[in-house]
Amino acid sequence: MTDLVRAARTIAGTLAAVLCSSGFHPTIFSIHRREINMAKKSKERFEDAEELKADVDALREELIDLERLATTVTYQQTDHTFKNGTRGPVNDLHVEFDAGDIKVKKKGPFNNAKVRKLADGRSRVDFDKPDGDIASGKDFEVTFERDGEFAIKRWRWTRNGNTGRWHKGAP
Hints:
Immunoglobulin-like; 2 helices; alpha+beta; rod-shaped
């Protein structure tokens, strides 16, 4: 046994003798030690509960963010009736949107509906009817869809690709 250990035991024994002579009983120390240990465990449980609460709060915030995202990303499908209001027959229709990733669900009397991506990321749909014309005054319906909101920004009729006047907004 080292001198340090002997000295510690001597001090502990002296302290116990002094405390016992003052009316303290050694079992009080073990009870007090037990209470200290229980308090430490309670504190650890409290800290665990606080950590769990913080985790739950963080998950709640993530759920709120996901709900916001779910409400902003919505499927949209719209039907539009286009009428040839020009003075002559047409065979092309060009429609530009305020968003990208537009799909054509119903293309009316047109044989082709080509979706193009513009430089700014928006979509343009070019409808073509190479096998005939759409007479002045005739109308028809086309349907567009997208995973998210969209609107028609502008559209125009042409004949064989010749420039026509742009119309703002949906028809």
